[in-house]
């Protein structure tokens, strides 16, 4: 057996022992592939509806709930001024106010993320289209410094 034949056999044996599931240099074996869709998709109408729900329902209702709790808790604190209950109500009210602020911030972040995702997908697709449209012909100049 020549060196080339022996080397080919060693390479073949090595390739057979490798787990192809962890390799990035091959395609999936039939019937392989992931269980997901072949293309990444986004649901723009769904994201727009979620942003609208955040803006028109969730954020305003959260604000109203915070204000309603403020008014009733302030009244209770005043009614129990000379009692130890007043201090407990004040502490609970401070915690409630922090939680309302935290929830509002989370809703704002979710809304921004939904809006940013749409912008990100649209911008990425636009950049990709320009990249493919602006490719030089085969054999033409490559890169900004080509002459």
Q: Could you list some keywords that capture this structure?
A:
mainly alpha, 147 residues, elongated, 3 helices
Give me the secondary-structure topology.
Elements: H1 3-17, H2 44-79, H3 84-133
Helix pairs in contact: 2-3
N-to-C series of helices and strands: HHH
Helix content: 55-70%
Strand tally is: 0
Largest sheet: none
Low-confidence stretches: none
Count of separate DSSP helical elements: 3
pLDDT averaged residue by residue = 79
Give the percentage of residues in beta strands: under 5%
Characterize the structure shown.
Residues 1-46 are annotated as: Disordered. Residues 17-29 have a biased composition (Polar residues). With 147 residues, the protein is mostly helical. The chain has a domain at 44-133. It is 69% helix and 0% strand. The protein has three helices and no strands. Helix 2 (44-79) runs antiparallel to helix 3 (84-133). The longest helix is centred in the C-terminal third of the chain and has 50 residues, at 84-133. The protein is elongated.
